[in-house]
Design brief:
Elements (H helix, E strand, L loop, with lengths): L1 H10 L3 E5 L5 H10 L3 E5 L3 H9 L9 H9 L3 E4 L10 E4 L14 H11 L7 E4 L7 H14 L8 E4 L18 E5 L2 H12 L5 E3 L3 H31 L4 H8 L23 H11 L5 H11 L1 H15 L8 E5 L14 H11 L3 E5 L23 H6 L2 E4 L8 H7 L3 E3 L14 E3 L1
Parallel strand pairs: 1-2, 1-4, 2-3, 4-5, 5-6, 7-8, 9-10, 9-11, 11-12, 12-13
Antiparallel strand pairs: 6-7
Helix pairs in contact: 1-7, 5-6, 8-10, 8-11, 12-13
Length: 439
Amino acid sequence: MYKALWQRIEEKTATVGVIGLGYVGLPLVLEFNRAGFHVLGFDLDPKKVEKLGRGETYIRHISNEKLQALAAGGRFEATSDFKRLREPDALIICVPTPLNVNREPDLSFVEGTARQIAARLRKGQLVSLESTTYPGTTDELVLPILENASGLKVGRDFFLAFSPEREDPGNPKYSTRTIPKVVGGMTKHCGDLAEALYAAIVTRVVRVSGLREAEMTKLLENIFRAVNIALVNELKIVCEHMHIDLWEVIDAASTKPFGYMPFYPGPGLGGHCIPIDPFYLTWKAREYKVSTRFIELAGEINTAMPEYVVTKVLEAMNERQRALKGAKILVLGVAYKKDVDDMRESPALELIELLRDKGARVDYHDPYIPKLPPTRKYKFDMKSKPLTAKTLASADVVLIATDHTAFDYEFIAEHAPLVIDTRNAAKRVKKHRAKIRRA
């Protein structure tokens, strides 16, 4: 089994199945297809499958041209028929791993996918999990499902690996191909096959000793970011009381050529990784009776930032002898970061809810998100307002929540009566500086 699969991977005659065609899965599809593999993409959403069949994109940073070439190449097919999971030689799982309302891991998508695979698992297949999760998920949850339902043995009949996704949507410097890929296998043969598979599409594969080391690697990367963002968010509040410009301090500290890495404050954390991943480790650590106080404190600071921003809006309104109740607030940017159309865990959504709860009338503008889709937590029926001089002038406060490059901050400052800037996005605006408040 091992030698036959190795040969198919080396000769690129293997079929690769990618389960979950979102921000992680679709770039993998493109890279495996580019490398010469036949690719079968699986997704529960029939709209995605239909769009891929027509060569239409649903992710901003992946162009229609790339998907049209993919559809026309004859080596890719998208499907919602999970009975076809027997067909690929390698199956890569790229499904969501959110938190539930109690900040506990929700592995229902991973478990459901594992059960779908287990019902069709055949000898000689490689299964690789990419979804971010706590150490132990692959061998404690996925492996028993695959072995018990199929009667097959890992390392002999089929192969199992973990390789954490490292996508950074909208980053022009790094792509799926150029970001090093961490890989860990259940057995040596499992790791060897996964390493060979990913080596066909990325410039560097980083092999670690096992599944849990690979799982922990992704958590460390994002815990590092979450903790440091919490630090600058806390310093942001301290510096305000001390009348110190934190942004200037960060710029100055960044001139040190060693021992320092800049992080920037904001209205909260967003995206599918940083707000979520640390709590996967926190939850798992409880099993070992270990308290992750540092991680939990960082989480408290970061999740409190939207409340802090609303307080700054209240203060600015009070200075103008205006009440927040009944005020018109225009939120600029609802994506979780600049220049993407991804709004998962975006702090802008909580800002909208908090402001509405205080009686404000809230609109938003985002050039990449024309309508707010329903999420697990929020069900806003809102469409993006056009960013015109009239729209800006009619708002009591314009709140910059996401610093999209497309925004003309000079134009915004000129026409808005008051701007609350949570991202230091308007730092280069020369005129109308008196209208701009940083939060």
